[in-house]
Amino acid sequence: MDYLLEEVLGYVAVLGKPNVGKSTLSNQMIGQKLSIVTDKPQTTRHRILGICSGPEYQMILYDTPGVIEKKMHKLDSMMMKNVRSAAINADCVLVVVDACKVPQQIDEVLEEGVGSLKEKLPILLVLNKKDLIKPGEIAKRLEWYEKSTNVDEVIPVSAKYGHGVDDVKEWILSKLPIGPAYYPKDIASEHPERFFVGEIVREKIFMQYRNEVPYACQVNVVNYISRPTSKDFIEVEIVVEKNSQKIILIGKDGKALKLLATAARLDIEDFLQKKVFLEVEVKVKVNWRQDEDLLRHYGYGGQIRAF
């Protein structure tokens, strides 16, 4: 029970627009892949609670969905509520921006993420993807953000390669309070394993399929049987909105779905460090992204539901 000792600890909300590298940064800080990472925007749907522990500290990271301007579905609105609720418990905020893009104000991200919190939280602007631009350009971007935004500090990083991530950790630790650690030091998240199994399948969908299809998919782990003497049995359903999407997912003679299942199974086995039998089925639920009751059942009300 060594996690009850006094140390530096607290909650960190990781905010930013889609595709700026929030999940990559969070994964680097935790030292383990928890959030799915693709080159498509809006792949993170839940607040992924990741736990970054050291000998004398514990940082609890909320890797939130990307802040979006146009909310097309009830799902989008509920995801943005999750962004706001992440900051309520936060002791400090990281706003991640893409160094490759023309500098712009972060007011919208802060408004969506922090809203009208009475106490001003310490804010660090993380200038990500510095590996993709020249050093002279980084200096210009750094200067612009320092002058034009109301943040406490700006730190350039390459989340992909881990450059500058230790500087971000040091900044966070300087802002967190002292107290007893909330979690044992050997866990990286409070989410159950089946949650991450679903996220791995969803990541493979984003990697394998194009256009709107990945965004119309909801992945549910409907059965997970742990078997000590043989392979774990995992049954997964992929919910889509249209029959045409189901046909695309399955592919000719079921080849596309088999490819997806194989890629997902290999990553799941790597994550769980054991062999599994994965069964994947595709179902149609018309307009599920607009059905608030169904969305809450799927865990978008702020809690991750074990199906």
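Next protein, fold it too.
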Amino acid sequence: MTTWFITGASSGLGAALAAAVLDLGHDAVITARNVDDVQGLVDRFPNRALAVPLDVTDHDQVVAAVAAGTERFGTVDVLVNNAGHGYRAAVEEAAPDEVAELFATNLFGPVDLIKTMLPQMRARRSGTIVNVSSIGAPRSNPASGYYTATKAALEGLSDALNREVGPLGIRVLVVEPGAFRTDFAGRSLTQSSTVIADYADTAGRRRKENDRSHGTQPGDPHRAARAIIATLEGDEVPFRLLLGSDAVRLVRSEYEKRIDEIDAWAHVSATTDYDLEEA
């Protein structure tokens, strides 16, 4: 039995993961900005589930939530940074305060939780940190530049973190989901109020009023939850885990294009080295 700490557990992947963890007999600290949204799960598993209010942008709540989970269950074995939301805007359209809030939620909140949780993981030389990213990290689309910037930053930080804490017995897993049938493209998606007509055929096509993907996504969040748990229970755990056949297809295509571009321009790249014969 392990103890999981899951942020953003009121809906989508977070809710599916919390339910799956508890169904399998593990303990779970399930967090949401409004704990009433997760009370039903606590009622089902009163001895193994603890609901804690948590806005990941509030440092005091982060500290209190980790303390509450540790007090109740003794240790936290798996931290899942799932809380976050999407944001649509052309780069020029975005409002600075909206971008600041997006980074506070999607990047700095997870960082705060990681830093708050790591001392106990280091002390016992074990633990797992799961950071939920996006296929947008390796491949961004018009209108998603700021959102995918938060995820690319989270992945870069996770890469360094993995190399820092791996020797201490702590694992880091970055999850890159494709399109899943959650509230991500619905209730959880925000966008800029500024609309610039010149971007109508690029970023404009992906504004909420023009996006018809909500409710038709191929990914099943319950299967995604089971895949994450099974991966962590395996003998080998990858650093990155793609979720969804669409994720595999799109990310593979992106990396193939990158390799082709590297090869095509390698003759230019190599001209910047010092000429050792001249030196």
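About the second fold: The chain is about 45% helix and 15% strand.
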